[in-house]
Amino acid sequence: MAQTHGCAPGPRREPAPGLPAGENHSLASGRPGILRVGGRAVVRVTLRVRRFNPETDLEPRFQEYTLDLPDRATVLDALITIRERVDGTLAFRYSCRMAVCGACGMRINGLAGLACNTILRRVAVDGAVTLEPMGNMPVAKDLVVNMEPFWHHLRAVKPYVEPHPDRVEPQDEYRISPRQVSELWEAARCIMCGACFSECTVDEIDINFLGPAALARAGWLVRDPRDSRAVDRLRELSRPNGIWDCTRCFYCVQVCPKDVNPLGQILRLRRLAVEAGITDNSGARHGQAFAESVKETGWLDEFSLVPKSWGWNPVALLSELPTAVRMLVRKGAPLPVHPRQPGAREVRYLFEKIERSRLVEDDA
C-alpha cells in the first residue's frame, strides 16, 4: 500500500526557502549552474518526477526531464513548461501561483513544499531536483494526491465558530489582548496546503491521528472569544489521536510555508487542557510525571514514568510488559533507585522561575 500510494517518506533534507518579495536581480556570469543565452541568465536543471497512475500502473516510476529555464524560475514554472511543451500527460495541481491557495503542494527533494514559491536553482542538487506527491495521502495521479484523509481530520475538529445560542452580541467588537491577536493570527495564516500532514511522522504510523493542520485550527477556535465550546473542545482533543499523540518531531514547523507553527499550537492546547483540569489521560499524566521527576531530582526517573503515565490501569500496564522484558534482556532497563543529582536545586529554581513568568503572562 505504501509503495503503491507513495505514503512512505523520501529522504529528508532542509526545505527550500520561498521567493522573497520583489526579487528581481540578474546573476553574475560564470556562476556554477547558470548559463547565458542571448544575454539572459538561464539555469539548466533535470527534474526527476515520480509518475504513477493507479488505473494503469502497477508500480510508480521516475521520469526525467532536462530543461533550460530563466534563473528565477520556480518548480511550478518548470512543471508547466513540461506539460505544455514536452509531456502533456504529466498531472499536477496548481491555481494562484502566489503561495495563497496551497494547491501546488508536493515533495521537493524529499520534503513537502509549494512548487510556486520554490526557486529551482536554490534546491537543485548537482543540477537535479526530485519531485514526488505528498505523503500520508493516496496518489490520484503523478503529483496529485487525494486529500480526503486531510479534510476528514479537519472536519473532525468542527473547524468553525460555535457561539452560544443565547449569546448577546457586543455593541462594538470583541476585544482581546494584542498577545491573543498575535497567537490567533498565527493559526489563521494556514492555507490548508497539507504540507504538515504530508510530513507528520505520527500520521505515517497511525492515520487516525488528527494531524498538525486540524489541531492548529482547533487551537485557533479554543482561543476565539466568539466560540462557546472551548472546554468541550479541549476535552475532545485530549482523547486518543489528539493533542497528546504528537511526538514533537518538528517536521510540521519545518515545512509550513506560512509559519503557522502547528507544533506551537498543539503545545498551547496541551497547556490549556491542563489548566482546565483535563488531566485524566495518559498524555497529561506523562507530562506531569516527567516534569515532577526532573524538578525534584534533577533528572528523569524512567522507572516510575510508565506506571505514573498510565495510572492505575492494569490492562494498559500489561501492554507495556513486552517492552520491559526486551529492556531487561538488553540490559537497558532503568534502576528503581533514583537519587537526587548534584545541581538539582538549580533545576528546581528554573522550574519555579518559568512558573512565575507564566503567572505574570496570565495576569497580563
Descriptors:
globular; Ubiquitin-like (UB roll); 3 domains; Fumarate Reductase Iron-sulfur Protein, Chain B, domain 2; two-stranded antiparallel ribbon; 41% helix; alpha+beta
CATH architectural arrangement of the largest domain:
Roll
> What's the structural domain tally?
3
**Number of H- or I-type helical stretches:** 16
Main β-sheet: number of strands, strand sense, barrel status? 6 strands, mixed
User: How many β-strand runs?
Assistant: 8
Overall spatial form: globular
- For the record, what is the CATH homologous superfamily label of the largest domain? Beta-grasp domain
Write the CATH fold name of the largest domain. Answer: Ubiquitin-like (UB roll)
Approximate helicity band? 40-55%
SSE series: HEEEHEEHEEEHHHHHHHHHHHHH
Rg, nearest Å: 25 Å
Q: How would you characterize this protein structure?
A:
The protein is α+β, with helices and mostly antiparallel strands. It has 3 domains: 144 residues, Beta-grasp domain (Ubiquitin-like (UB roll), Roll), CATH 3.10.20; 128 residues, Fumarate Reductase Iron-sulfur Protein, Chain B, domain 2; 81 residues, no CATH class. It has 16 helices and 8 strands. Strands 1, 2, 3, 4, 5 and 6 form a 6-stranded mixed sheet that branches. A two-stranded antiparallel ribbon has the order 7-8. A hairpin with a 2-residue loop joins strand 4 and strand 5. Helix 8 runs antiparallel to helix 9, helix 9 packs across helix 11 and helix 12 packs antiparallel against helix 13. The longest helix has 20 residues. The protein is globular. The N terminus is likely disordered.
